[in-house]
Amino acid sequence: MAGRLRERLPDDDRILLIDRSFDGTLGLSLLWIMRGWRAAEDVRVRPTAAALPGVEMIEASVRLIEPERRVVRTDAGDFHCDAMVIALGADLAPSLTPGLAEAIEAGSAEQFYTAEGASSLHGKLRDLREGRLVVLIAALPFKCPAAPFEAAFLAADLLREEGVGDRVRVDTITPDPLPMPVAGPAVGRALVGMLDRYGIGFLAQRAVEKVDGDARELIFKDGSREGFDLLAVVPPHRPPAAVAGMGGGGWISVDSRTLATGIDGVWALGDATLLSLPNGKPLPKAAVFAEGAADVIASGVARHLGYVAPEPWFTGYGSCYIELGGHQAAKGEGNFLEPPAPQVTLYEPSARFHQEKADQEADWLKRWNV
């Protein structure tokens, strides 16, 4: 976003990029860390001034945003602006599911949405010699609709490599009726078929109420229970605390084509947003859409500041890879803003799609680690 703005605005317009840490992990590589194909250090992202020339990079934690006044309050002081773009992401909140944080702390469960969690889960998978691995979606919404099912495929692949694939049962459990429901029932049914072909179970419309880490048991809201020997979990997500009152139940409501928030001079993109599709479902929280939104918002900001720029228009076109193991990946691709519902095609697994993802990883690492 900052880079796109720098390309469009005159040199004497200041662009401030505020981040609590300019040292992170490439999200698309997290499951490869879990699989053991990457180490966390291999996929660290450390953008510097050389990667973003002409952008003032300010390391600070955002405490409060006052969008109507266009003020950002941080632990390094307050910042006032003529235009604001909010990209605070979504926070992981295991404590929102009773017992989950305690199960993670005790070691009977682990999440794979951070480099530390993915690395820890890799070790736990290698130690698992028999029993049942459950990949659980604890709550909706969550980042990357394909991630829990990729996790199941790659965990099963690792277990086969360890020689215990026939002694460990792998199941996925979700509150949704199908995997990736926003992509449509055809894509969901195709993914269920892939899971079945790889010997992975799929339990739908199961909303977890509590995790009993000591008994290694999941208790669901319908009263049913499921046991596990190891739990790999998508923890509940919550909107950033620094933003409130912008609609969407804490998530930031944005216009589906311009990403404008409805407050003059304020836009938002990425996982903190709620963008409603023509069928009423939310746009998935995925990096491909955040990256596409950056160019749209850059035009909107430039026009807001009085410069000539293309009219903002977010297409809603996106794609994602679903890793199956054995360096094979399927690919889902289509237009998510197509009325009356997203038009998405799921392509059969191939080595080419796995390589496409590896090339994307390499491009992003090269782009930022200057």
Automatic annotation (TrEMBL):
It holds the Pfam family Pyr_redox_2. Residues 62-288 form the FAD/NAD(P)-binding domain. PANTHER family: FAD-DEPENDENT PYRIDINE NUCLEOTIDE-DISULPHIDE OXIDOREDUCTASE (PTHR43755:SF1), PTHR43755. It comes from Planomonospora alba. Signal peptide: none annotated. This is FAD/NAD(P)-binding oxidoreductase.
